[in-house]
Amino acid sequence: MDSSNTAVKHLALLGSTGSIGRNVLDIVRRFPGRYRICGLAAGRNVALLKEQIEAFNPRLVAVADEEDARGLRESLPAFWGERIVGGGEGAARVATLAEADMVISAIVGAAGLTPTLAAVEAGKNIGLANKETLVMAGELVMETARRTGATILPVDSEHNAIFQALAAGRRQDIKKVILTASGGPFNGQDQRTLWSITPEQALAHPNWSMGRKISIDSATLINKGLELIEARWLFDLPLEMLEILIHPQSIVHSMVEFVDGSVVAQMGIPDMRIPIAYALSYPERLKINLPPLNLAGTPPLSFQRPDFDRIPALKLAYQACSRGGTIPAAFNAANEIAVAAFLDRRIRFPEIVYAVAETVNRCEWRPAADLATVMAADMAARLQAESIITALELAAGQKMARRTTPSTTAATAANRIPDQP
Q1: Is the C or the N end of the chain the one with fewer CB within 10 Å?
Q2: How far apart are CA 215 and CA 202, in angstroms?
Q3: Nearest residue to 336 (alpha-carbon basis) of 136, 155, 62
Q4: Positions of E strands within 221-309
């Protein structure tokens, strides 16, 4: 039980039924005297959302689908009628609640951009777990935050680790920021075997418990590419100061190297409640009573540079970040379509990255000047990716010759992408 006299912080939670959202609510339950949920926004898991409504009694609830919202209203007492909204604008209403001291952006994918940007425009404090917000519109979002005074605190474990490590020195003394990646469940596996990978195998991350989409992204390493682009904007660093290292043990969550040779690392057990709690309580730290990191019992820690030929997703991400404009939005949109196709068993595992590479190849570069331009690029990339996936399905159905290794499929497409717009 929390006995602190700290003023209650009111939270609006976007993506309450997802993995991050559920962990946020776990922290709120542990510290009822510190946090109060004033708003919830969710997708299609209405049964879980109803449980959350009954447990936390928010003032406003948003459901993505109007029909789901109607069913939720009918299943709850009548006074909930006006407090439950459905449709595309509902999450933005939750994100801009006047009483919200902090907005936790944990909606998965591009759907999180519009409500998160609305919260930034309202000058809210943001706990950012939706990396796609900065991947798609990093320059726009960060410029808006500077204008409105919104504060963005990272919730993702890697960016939260960087945020903590940066406190050890002056900004002008930073030499390099190093994001670590577990390598996913297929790290080091023979490339030829990846063609037979099932969705169930790809969802089985060795270290982290995550949602379906991010688990597949971690298996392809596209997730680390998205985090690279996010870090570029969140910490306002040039791409050449960002590095990725494969770290299978997932104990060192990220590092910062300073000009004097010092490397400051943030370490901990792989549990998302640690970075979530720090973002919620910053600059304080909460005693959340999780198992401590047992350094004496931890296996030896190893690090290796990624092979871009074996992991073409990372090369694609560097290229997308370098080109900028609407290309990162296209990169993200194509990946969302390709991951969904893989989970539906329409394409095979190596074809996820191939579809993303081919989509980015075919998309037009434009400056990401405003939300409308970004969303138009997102939609165009989704249509292009769907066309590519349909062609892959047709080829498979006709038993046409298929590429023999994933490095050939994706890396070849990646090599055709121009480095500059």
Answers
A1: N
A2: 7
A3: 136
A4: 242-246, 252-258, 263-267
Do the Cβ atoms of 368 and 326 come closer than 8 Å? yes
SS3 at position 235? coil
Residuewise pLDDT in 10s, the chain (421 residues): 454 567 999 999 999 999 999 999 999 999 999 999 999 999 989 999 999 999 999 999 999 999 999 999 999 999 898 999 998 799 999 999 999 999 999 999 999 999 999 999 999 999 999 999 999 999 999 999 999 999 999 999 999 999 999 999 999 999 999 999 998 888 878 888 899 999 999 998 776 667 789 899 999 999 999 999 999 999 999 999 999 999 999 999 999 999 999 999 999 999 999 999 999 999 999 999 999 999 999 999 999 999 988 889 999 999 999 999 999 999 999 999 999 999 999 999 999 999 999 999 999 999 999 999 999 999 999 999 999 999 999 988 875 444 444 444 555 555 554 443 3
Separation CA 410–CA 403 (nearest Å): 10
d(CA 334, CA 312): 15
HSE at residue 340, side-chain half, CA atoms within 13 A, is: 13
| C-alpha to C-alpha distance for 413 and 419, rounded to whole angstroms | 13
What's the token pair of residue 211? 């949602």
Main-chain phi, psi angles of 100, to 5 degrees: -75, 120
What pTM did the predictor assign?
Answer: 0.91
DSSP symbols for 158-204: HHHHHHHHHTTS-GGGEEEEEEEE---TTTT--GGGGGG--HHHHT-
Contact, 305 vs 221, CB < 8 A? no
